Amino acid sequence: MAIGTSMTTAWKREQIQALFELPFNDLLFQAQTVHRAHFKPNEVQVSTLLSIKTGACPEDCKYCPQSARYDTGLEKEQLMEVQQVLKQAERAKSTGATRFCMGAAWRDPKDRDMPKLQAMIQGVRELGLETCMTLGMLNGEKAQALAEAGLDYYNHNLDTSPEYYGDIITTRTYADRLNTIENVRSAGMKVCSGGIVGMGEQAKDRVGLLQQLANMEQPPESVPINMLVKVPGTPMADLDDLDPFEFVRTIAVARILMPTSHVRLSAGREAMSDELQALCFFAGANSIFYGEKLLTTDNPEAEADQQLFARLGIVPEQRSVHQQQLEQEATAVDQAHQALAPEPLFYNAAP
Ligand code: SF4
Question: In terms of residue numbers, what domain contains 253?
Fold first, then answer.
């Protein structure tokens, strides 16, 4: 049994496999039933992702254009300045995002980076946004320091099953990943952890990934399910496409196994048709990511998402009471802001 798993509630592989093998409509019906028992069925949480340090990563994740080992033409950047990050967070908030995720392409954060990271967390919180970071591996001390700065979520994906993992990454182990997640939990932060499908894995590896996530003593609050984006220059550039129905099945099984987690459609969403995304929402996906392009372009992606939400009658999930309190505190400090009016929604489907 892997680190952090529960002896009493463990899902067996055969049970998970059986869910995957249900007739498609039966699986979606079950997933939608579970979804409605725990969430408002027509709400989707919206997060925004900003890369605060891009490229030149020493790790060898075969799917990743940010690895220094692959020539993907990606421009490398230094860690961003705090003020730049806060400016982008304000823009994200104005589009209705409720969580701001900051990602750095590192093996792990170094001591010298910590003060800047802590200032980013504090600044983003003061804007009334939930904070999330993904910075690579974390030891207990760094996890504690980030938690004390107010970090709400830490993202660290398991990527795939323990068995297939060694084919994808050799520079850190599956146990390293589980240890980081344990450190995040012990520091009192929420966990965002999921994986990537379409990496040439077998069906049993999708089962194995979801088993690991669902059997954690406390499953992740956020479970991103990514479809591989095949970036030229990476070793996975020429893999065959995964059957989109298999992707939808993975979302549906994740929903059934982790009924109270937000299941997030993230990487690969741009390449999906509206119909496929709608099917994913029906299967229980209730969170989406806007990429960093949102922050650097005229935002056509956000417009397309707004239109899709409107066509499906979906509304963005409201911030939690805790988030709203944070915002009120920030507002009280700055009397110049007449922030008594409610925050505009990213999209309001009400007629
Ligand atoms: S650790 Fe993260 S940034 Fe680095 S290569 Fe792996 S996925 Fe990419």
Answer: 26-333
